[in-house]
Amino acid sequence: MQRNYLCSTKQQVEELGVHWDKLQTYLDAPVAKFDWILSCVENLLEKSSLYIPVASDGTQPVAIAPLVKPNGFFGAVQQIGVSRHGEPADFLYKDAASLDLLTHVLSSGRIPLLLMRIPEESPVIQALEKAYKGKAFINLRPQVGCPFIEVQANEEQVLNSLPSRLRSDLRRAQRKAETLGEITFEMHAPASLAELTPVWNESLRVEAAGWKGRSHTALAEDQNMASFFLSYADRACQQGILRIYFMRIGGQVVAMQIAIEASDRLWLLKIGYDEDYAKCSPGMLLMLETLQYAARKGLASYEFLGAAKDWTRRWTKTERNNVTIRIYPYTIKGLSIFIHDTSTYFWKRMVGKFRKVA
Hints:
The protein is of the alpha+beta class.
């Protein structure tokens, strides 16, 4: 017998843990796993409350939508944490029928939705369009994709597979770095919080020593995000999938990466470098080292996550496309949110044009 219910407390979310990662999702990434979501629940709810519809076959969950409801009348229901960490997100489901059941629950409740960075080919999009057909205005917009590199068969091929200009820059950076001291690389795979703490603190120090420190966007200056990532890193330690990489010059850590090795891929979560060493591009040299590490381990791909930027396009132009789907039900609330979102959009465009003129 089918039974659908809503999770609205942390305890209820924790009870889903034994089922969560058994369900499938088009987004086969650490950011879709239970440990990531629970860390979001603990640290990134901020001005919102849990709103997690669950479809059940009567004995166990068969589909889950990890969502939150922002406070205030004009807030559409959206994915947990995405507005803060900016990573892609998706629903979980046992099969197509389970997904249809879940989206029917959402459409029956006439729930306004703002789902950012859904994988373009996720079955969730078609299921939502089907469920809300005739009940809502649906708007899809392409979003910046997540860049990735298909890893070469062995590490000797990695450098030669990169664009020629990038290869030249890497060789030049290597020569400059060598004039400053001995270059070494480290990979840490902490298995406990005690092992994690010193390398984690060093990673945050290096991140704050770069442009993120100057722009006040480093984790060291954002308590909620710092707590979120440390919480997730601790859980990843217990799973044995956390990887923290350092590049040292003369014993000094000058670049770092925080990554996850899972699902036959290496997933970058955080990067940073010390700007005192910017002339020798330590971040780029560490990127090459970890790309070669992925080749040595026989991994299938190197995933940048986040959004493609000019610096990632130096390494790869291959991206996993995403879309944002907005659903405005034909209700007073849905119409109000539509008017609010539309007016906000055009106001921002108008202000942007005036600033360019000025």
